[in-house]
Amino acid sequence: MEITYADVSWLADGWELGDVWCLTFLRGLEAAEALRRLGAAEESIRPLSYRELTDAGLFPHTVLAGRLKGWVVLIERNGSEATELDTMRALSAGTELVSVLRHDYATDLFAYAIDGDRLTSFDPRKPAWRYGSDPDRLIDAMREVGVDPTFLPGGDVAGDEAISTGAPTMSEVLMLAARLTGVVLTPEVLNGPFVGGVVGSQADDSLEDGDGQQGTTSHTTVELFAAIRRGDPQQVNRDEASAQA
Description:
The protein has helices spanning about 5-10, 30-40, 50-55, 85-90, 140-145, 170-180, 185-190, 200-210, 220-230, 235-245, and strands spanning about 20-25, 45, 60-70, 70-75, 95-105, 110-115, 115-120, 130, 195-200. It is of the alpha+beta class. Helix 4 (about 85-90) runs parallel beside helix 9. It is globular and about 45 Å long.
């Protein structure tokens, strides 16, 4: 079934997930494994619905994970842990990652990574400014969904192949994610069963209030990434336990 802009407009233009959210798609992982890679404590992983998450006010420290065909989607409400570089490395180890962050009060983000390598990422409002080991990797796909890779802030464009002078929209960025993955988060999926896990704590909030640094967990260390690559579950568990301490 072909995914259309109508399939993503409820997210791009609506408020069901609020005004700050992050969707991260991971190929081939199970939901619980994705949460572990994100840093969720094993004892916190349990069945949890989106309604329960919101009614109990469990976000941002509790993240939902659910299967979408051959992918798993991580849903962060009021959070963006998956977009941290170290976290992205751990999440994408041995697989593929596509992440979309909407943040109405700061910076939106699109990111694409394979096997621990962030190939390209960009602020959807400034797609001409791309970062990563292969920043031009998705140029053709961007153009296909209407994201002009030459667009600069202020309505300017760079290069001779500009396709529009309009700023990309969140619908176009979500369509880019859908084209890469072949899946999309729908209202029906959001109302279905998920697995939830706690990936942060109040200690993270104190970091934000105290020294001005972004409050993120420290579980996605180089050692954890290397352990995932080696397939060493004991080392992964040790690193995750250390991060939760």
